[in-house]
Amino acid sequence: MLAMGALAALAAASAPWSVPAVRKALAPQAAPAPEPDVCIVAPPTRYDPASGLPPTAARAIPADARCPVCGMFPARSREWAAQVIFDNGDAQFFDSPLSLFMYLQDVARYSPGRSAGSIVAHYVTDASAPAGDGGARWIDALGAYYVHGSSARGPMRAGNLPAFATREAAQAFAAQRGGTVLAFGAIDAALVAELAGRGGHVHQH
């Protein structure tokens, strides 16, 4: 019945046909191939000796650098940005402290071939010091204080843990915008997972 229908369609079209044409008409149609998964590649930025900076110093964010966690461009949200420096001088940039915490929990996932043990410096932007001249005031992420649960919304429109150089600055911010002050070590995997889910912070690799 199927073969007769296909032949009838060919005849009705009044088009010349041949054995190959008939075979093609009768051949089962393959299902369309699924679209490939989105893959955001965020390679580290190499250390430039000509910069004059020490290899472990914080550096300016390149305009084309992408966050390895969410694929965003950290240079577009410098007031939230973070970065890590590896032992060979390479830098990886992040759109927010939240992305930094997500990255540190599974470095090998976001940067294959790398490990947390090869990171020699961690930096976040001091939220109490507005960036000047397009730059950012970098502070040690391990010694910084973070505010969880404030009204501030970061690049992913979630509570992206604004960072501060001192506990007093973080407390002053929390008094105005709400939230709880936390030290680096108090931000655990459960809190990071909660914030990541709330903001749709999903790795696209």
Q: What is the secondary structure topology, with strand pairs?
A:
Elements: H1 2-12, H2 19-26, E1 82-86, E2 91-94, H3 97-105, H4 107-110, E3 119-125, E4 138-140, E5 145-148, E6 163-164, H5 167-177, E7 180-183, H6 189-198
Antiparallel strand pairs: 1-2, 1-3, 3-4, 5-6, 5-7
Helix pairs in contact: 3-6
Description:
The protein is α+β, with helices and mostly antiparallel strands and 205 residues long. It folds into 2 domains: 1-34, no CATH class; 49-198, no CATH class. 26% of the residues lie in helices and 14% in strands. The chain has helices spanning 2-12, 19-26, 97-105, 107-110, 167-177, 189-198, and strands spanning 82-86, 91-94, 119-125, 138-140, 145-148, 163-164, 180-183. The strands form 2 sheets. A 4-stranded antiparallel sheet has the order 2-1-3-4. A 3-stranded antiparallel sheet has the order 6-5-7, with helices on one face. α3 crosses α6 (189-198). The two termini are 48 Å apart. Mean pLDDT is 82; it is low at 1-17 and 31-39.
Element pattern in H and E: HHEEHHEEEEHEH
DSSP, total strands: 7
Strand percentage lies at 5-15%
Which descriptor suits the 3D outline? Answer: globular
Average the pLDDT over all residues and give the rounded result.
82
Write a concise synopsis of the structure shown.
The protein contains 6 helices and 7 strands. The chain has helices at 2-12, 19-26, 97-105, 107-110, 167-177, 189-198, and strands at 82-86, 91-94, 119-125, 138-140, 145-148, 163-164, 180-183.
Structural descriptors:
four-stranded antiparallel sheet, 14% strand, 205 residues, alpha+beta, disordered N terminus, three-stranded antiparallel sheet, 2 domains
